[in-house]
Amino acid sequence: MANPNQEIKYTKIFINNQFVDAVSGKTFLTVNPSTGKKLADIAEGDKADVELAVKAAKTAFVRTSTWRQMDASARGALLWKLSTLMERDANVLASLESLDNGKPFPNSMYDVQGSIKTFRYYAGLADKVGGDTIPSDGPHFTYTRKEPVGVVGQIIPWNYPLAMLAWKWGPALAAGCTIVMKPAEQTPLTALYMAALSKEAGFPDGVINVVPGYGPTAGGAISSHPEIRKVAFTGSVEVGKIIMAAAATSNLKKVSLELGGKSPLVICEDANVDQAAMIAYMAVFENQGQCCIAATRTFVHESIYDQFVQKASELAKARKVGNPFTEGTVHGPQIDDTQYKKILGYIEVGQKEGAKLVTGGKTVGNEGYFIEPTIFANVTDDMTIAKEEIFGPVQSIIKYRTLDEAIERANNTSFGLAAGIVTNDINKALTFSHAVEAGSVWVNTYLAVVNQAPFGGYKQSGIGRELGKDSLEGYLETKSVSIRLPAKI
């Protein structure tokens, strides 16, 4: 059950299966976004600590190490053991997530359960990785091997701290890599707790290392380290570009990036307005709007536009905002003061540029970082709130006339992470699904992310894919081997 007074056991850097202080001795605060008050002092890792973590990870990856000699099925068993420990400590993990991130406790518990499923999915894949035999010319036996990339760096965001850890650890460990991870400085608590569980599960020394710290220092050291062979990052486009540049100029390490979005959701004239409004409501206000796939551009056909706006307003007004541990709360605070002020700034700009504020737009309470679910109508494509990623609870409802027009406008963005359509016409659904430039497309639903399907973006929304077999491939190298035979067989 939820525990707003959950003990915080782990606050140090985790290297080589040990919790240690930062080399510098520095710490930083992690704050409860519901109150704005300190939760704990966390060891602040930087370049020196990343160096130690990489050394440990590199030692764990040597050819004769316990980890490298371990059967693939045994790696899968360790992942499964980790998931069972998460089941045992689900209430602890969910409570830490709600304290550190601010999401309502049921949402945190949902993320815990989803993360357990992610680890179990990759536990099952660990011994399913194989190459091919190739019918090559000449007297040769040719085959391919799938081998782990090596030491990988992973940098995760604050909006889904535990889920993003699972998305990164799962495929990397199934592939046989070793890890140096930096959790977001706003939300390090569940990553450090998971580090302790990984040791309890039996992962060998150095396989998993967690270095909390800031992006420019700890994150920068990971992305530019010459002995890290891949960096996986989830976060903003701006930081993604910095990481990609650092990867290129250091050792040309592999890069996978899951970045921002400005996702369109198209509501067709044949849609049931009540159902469509609910889909759109969930699509934009999930996780306080702090969701990379949030459908913040809601395109509604002109024939049902006014009716839709009215229904959307009713849903937003009824959304209960409050403390994440209070029963019935479905909407918690924004992550921190910086994000809080950024969102309020976008709301102010939206009004100044002529959008109609239908509901919301104000702060809630006297402490913490709470903002009302906010809806703008009469939004045009040239407005700032229709172009830039707000990463907050702000829905822009945009009018359109034809599906072709909606598709063209939906694609008129530098992003391409997700998209959706609500319609009873299969032809419209297929036309949109095939034409829209997005990595995930949902029909008559939204946020339907599953472990088995790849997740990632077009254009500036990223490179590579998370989840599914595609994510596993990102942590593997393909080696071709040819052996000369005495004669053709």
UniProtKB/TrEMBL annotation:
A GO term, aspect molecular function: oxidoreductase activity, acting on the aldehyde or oxo group of donors, NAD or NADP as acceptor
Lineage: Eukaryota, Metazoa, Ecdysozoa, Arthropoda, Hexapoda
InterPro entries: Ald_DH/histidinol_DH (IPR016161), Ald_DH_C (IPR016163), Ald_DH_CS_CYS (IPR016160), Ald_DH_CS_GLU (IPR029510), Ald_DH_N (IPR016162), Aldehyde_DH_dom (IPR015590)
UniProt domain Aldehyde dehydrogenase: residue ranges: 20-481
Classification via SUPFAM superfamilies: ALDH-like
Keyword Glycoprotein: no
Catalytic residues as annotated in Swiss-Prot or TrEMBL: E258
Phosphoprotein found in the keyword field: no
Keyword line: Oxidoreductase
Protein family according to the UniProt entry: Belongs to the aldehyde dehydrogenase family.
Annotated protein name in UniProt: Aldedh domain-containing protein
